Amino acid sequence: MALDPRVRKKLIRVLGSDYVKDDPITCYSYRCDGLTLHPAEPQAVLYPADRDQLVAAVRILSEQGISFLPRGAGTGLSGGAVPREGSVLIEMVRFRAIGPIDPVNRTIEVEPGVVNLHVSHAAQPHGLYFVPDPSSQKACSVGGNVGENSGGPHTLKYGVTVNHVVGLEVVLPDGEVVELGGPAWTTPGPDLLSLFIGSEGTLGIVTKIICRLTPLPERVHTMLAVFGSVREACESVSAIIRAGIVPAALEMIDRIVIQAIEQTIGAGFPTDAEAVLIVELEDLREGLDAEAEQIETILRANGAVDVRQAADEAERALIWRARKEAFGALGSISPSFYTQDGVIPRSALPRVLERILAIGAAHGLTIANVFHAGDGNLHPLILYNSRDPAEIEATHQAGREILETCLAEGGSLSGEHGIGLEKSHLMDGAFDEVSLNHMKQVRAVFNPRELLNPGKIFPQPGRCGELKGRPGDAAAQLRAKSGIRV
Amino acid sequence: MALDPRVRKKLIRVLGSDYVKDDPITCYSYRCDGLTLHPAEPQAVLYPADRDQLVAAVRILSEQGISFLPRGAGTGLSGGAVPREGSVLIEMVRFRAIGPIDPVNRTIEVEPGVVNLHVSHAAQPHGLYFVPDPSSQKACSVGGNVGENSGGPHTLKYGVTVNHVVGLEVVLPDGEVVELGGPAWTTPGPDLLSLFIGSEGTLGIVTKIICRLTPLPERVHTMLAVFGSVREACESVSAIIRAGIVPAALEMIDRIVIQAIEQTIGAGFPTDAEAVLIVELEDLREGLDAEAEQIETILRANGAVDVRQAADEAERALIWRARKEAFGALGSISPSFYTQDGVIPRSALPRVLERILAIGAAHGLTIANVFHAGDGNLHPLILYNSRDPAEIEATHQAGREILETCLAEGGSLSGEHGIGLEKSHLMDGAFDEVSLNHMKQVRAVFNPRELLNPGKIFPQPGRCGELKGRPGDAAAQLRAKSGIRV
């Protein structure tokens, strides 16, 4: 599928011929984002240079009734940047301006293509940083963080992206431009700013972001607690919270992930442990040691066989490198894995972790766990072989059972990865019909013809017949059976 | 205006005869909330006992096309609970259940009529509290806090109500019930929870609130800095923030308010000072003293003539009592005052404060200031005599000029008091037409006939002819002239 020649001509007039691509190789290379299970090709890829070019391109597509969607770095895990229905993909990679920084009001203006970590680098000379720190922070874009309302290990203390963005400039699906919020950090009237953050590219395309910056902690203390059972590690999480402590981060890694980390990164984690907890404290200079001691006492009382305190910045950096590259490390032990993102009240951690292992066992699948324990934000990683159709089917089924378990515990379908196209078929189980209808109507206020990023978030009625994929594509057949629609 | 007898009969069947009132004295007593400048009487007041009664009453009113609105404690300052167009007022005072508390997940479920401070009292045995702390916290209701997205002195460190509420149960204007958010603290899909918080009772009536609780600080350090000029106090605010410090609170009080406080409460504030700053730090045990010293150095370098450290909890409590009762204390020096609520980037504080004093001088009015300096959230208090029509007119004009100054500085119309009916005529200057239209359409998704709380937030086109008020009512005539519509 390629662009209609008249449309291509109009787009080239606006963007230049280098920035309108609909050749098969380009389209093929954009067929998935971080979610590889549901590929779909765009009919073309556009690379606007600035807001005015974007507006002009959006107006052309909108007039022609051609659907489109933005794409940041493509690291999303729920398929938010996968073009359904042959939509035109708008690459935001050329929106790279950073600054200016305002150190008194603690804000920085950035364009959406800026890499997350580069915001903190720019703010560092002022003793400030941008808090949201997903594992992909070396690659993911701030625009994508806004779309998915991204979190990270430090969500526990500091909240998610919506807590760290005070203003947006947005291009609506009809090409109109609006500013939401602003440097004064408040938004009277219905809060369209919070509505946009986390709307997964279904309400508008962000072209400018005013980020809120936070002072760098004066001192950080990182410790690693080693456990002989996952249950003890989970119970330690509740015990730390119940003691009134607010760690900056509280992360759990299980044995399978520890072994993968040790095979690739070599962080010195004990390979005979069933689980480790990373606990990070940060704050004023002198108070830390007492709190670290208190936490060590709690950890040992809950069964920790060893508690190591990071002696220096190098040791701390290694622990975090291991945590953030853990997903990649799993490549060393499994050809493919499927990352889940469910949330539960943290008090339910021990029993839900046991249930996840049981779900894996029932399907003959190994499930690894590395996640934001303090927030109750699970990331079960289902290991599977992508060449084995039976394993793919079992993987989908196990994923669905895990998320249904989260819902049954009063939890939710996603903590930070979004619904995208991955979990849209589960939204019926997560929300009542009245809520879903109101959500759809709110989307329709901004995106009435659903030209922008169609087929995301909400269940798609009766679309089984439209399954894409090559004839004989085992994955597509299995998706059909498992009820997941491409 | 009283209820149609058929409607009264239906409502009494649902609520009981004691809980449907439309006698003149009841209606008169509900003609205003904390904003006294724009009174309007309801046609009746209802007192439902629980959600089911509320739903039944809302269905009756909705079927009859009678407008209605909820009222919490009536402490709001922008007229959000003032019944325009003879709406029926729904008193939420009987929704008083507190609990249960979940200390591990740090949540508490409360009904909307619960007084703000009572939430923290209930949580205290678990070492937890509910952060939002408006000056009215001894009286205001949590439902009102949700409606207005209330702040308080500790907004600087902890954010406003939207950061401390994780779930709501809401009755929509047609009587349908929806749950938004929940104990897992996340809301995938379009974020209706954040949309509701701060919607000023225009989207639905809240019947249950899951509050997020926060650990009580281990130690608090409060200091009072004395200045010979407002400018020096303002510049100290920027200097503290620029140093990378995040105080828990950073409040400014000017000479006029200091004198009123000393005449009534007697907090020992120096009556010859032009301004004082309250700076509060809280955190780990040992680190505080060093940070307090650093702040004292900054304050003195910026012109503080004295810096007092609260020696004990009693001294701290007295400082905060003075701050929180400052509005009341002004009654000792002026028959009436009008509280403004504008926000500016904090770096603009020095010049905006000077501009506010100039606006007061130009209109022959005294303007006092007591406000959240760290957030740039101003509360200019315009002192006036409510029996002097010329002063009322000048007060409206000065208020408008102050808010226009905030907008010109990149600020906003409200930090925590809302738009209500007070500032709806200024929204055109604060938002572009595209944004306003989308806000109205979002409201229409939930409140399509505008039966719920009509005439709030958005400018009312061509309604001057409908001015209410007794013939010869000077205030009403002046409102007409000043462009503010009742």
Protein described:
The structure is a homodimer of 486-residue chains. Chain A is an alpha+beta fold and 486 residues long. Chain A folds into four domains: 87 residues, Uridine Diphospho-n-acetylenolpyruvylglucosamine Reductase, domain 2; 118 residues, Uridine Diphospho-n-acetylenolpyruvylglucosamine Reductase, domain 3 (2-Layer Sandwich); 108 residues, Alpha-Beta Plaits (2-Layer Sandwich), CATH 3.30.70.2190; 149 residues, Alpha-Beta Plaits (2-Layer Sandwich), CATH 3.30.70.2740. Helix content of chain A is 35%, strand content 20%. The first copy, chain A, has 17 helices and 20 strands. In chain A, the strands form five sheets. The first copy, chain A, has a seven-stranded antiparallel sheet, sandwiched between helices. A five-stranded antiparallel sheet of chain A has the order 5-6-10-8-9. The first copy, chain A, has a four-stranded mixed sheet with strand order 1-2-4-3. In chain A, strand 8 and strand 9 form a beta hairpin. In chain A, helix 1 runs antiparallel to helix 3, helix 8 packs antiparallel against helix 13 and helix 14 runs parallel beside helix 17. The longest helix of chain A is centred in the C-terminal third of the chain and has 20 residues. Chain A is globular. The C terminus of chain A is likely disordered. At the A-B interface, strand 9, helix 7, strand 11, helix 8 and helix 10 of A face strand 9, helix 7, strand 11, helix 8 and helix 10 of B. Chains A, B: InterPro entries: FAD-bd_oxidored_4_C, FAD-bd_PCMH, FAD-bd_PCMH-like_sf, FAD-bd_PCMH_sub1, FAD-bd_PCMH_sub2, FAD-linked_Oxase-like_C, FAD-linked_OxidoTrans_Type4, Oxid_FAD_bind_N. Chains A, B: This is FAD-binding protein. Chains A, B: Its cofactor is FAD. Chains A, B: GO terms for molecular function: FAD binding; oxidoreductase activity. Chains A, B: Pfam families: FAD-oxidase_C, FAD_binding_4.
